[in-house]
Design a protein that fits this description.
The protein is α+β, with helices and mostly antiparallel strands and 219 residues long. It is built from four helices and five strands; from the N terminus they run E-H-E-E-E-E-H-H-H. It folds into two domains: 64 residues, no CATH class; 110 residues. Helix content is 64%, strand content 10%. It has a five-stranded antiparallel β-sheet, covered by helices on one side. The longest helix has 46 residues.
Length: 219
Amino acid sequence: MSRSMPVLRFSGFSLACVLVAVLTGATSNAFAGIKCWNNKDGVRECGNVVPPEYAQAGHEEKSKSGMTVKTQGRAKTTEEIVTEREAREAAEQRQMELDAAAKAQAAADRVLLDTFSSEDDMILTRDGQITNLESQVKLTESHIAKLVRSRDQLISKAANYEMRKKEVPPNLTRDITGLNTQIAEHQKFIQTKRQEQGILRTKFDMGIARYRELRGLTR
């Protein structure tokens, strides 16, 4: 029966002697592929085979001349593998988002150029939409003024009842409350339209700037 080659291990002075022997050609074939590693105490050891308990810790391989010909890094821990995978997945997700954003921007640019023939065309469209909203605001303000006059008349009637020490009729109180509710709703409507005007201005300002950029226009 053949005998397996023993694992040769050296440290400290022994390692130095082995390397000297290697350099002078005095070693046998057993030292043709020397591997060096650090043991659990941090001591440098060398041998023809890395012990199983240090196989994952990394090692160096030496040539016959004692030169380092290969460095084997330590095996990654489970935590490191998970961290790298998560980082890779995050990077891939971010790239997908960037690609989607670029695609959406390209589509928006096509719509912009297909919809408007010039910057003046965009300005006219913007002003027309803002004017339309302004007309709704003015109409609502006019209606509010009528509601306020009606409410104030009812409030005067209620005040007369109170001045004469009489109970204010429930229907009169109900009508005043109803008018106040309508006035508040119309005021909220106006506020919404003002906000829409602001959004339109911002939207068109950005659109005009982008249009000029795409067309290569300068002010």
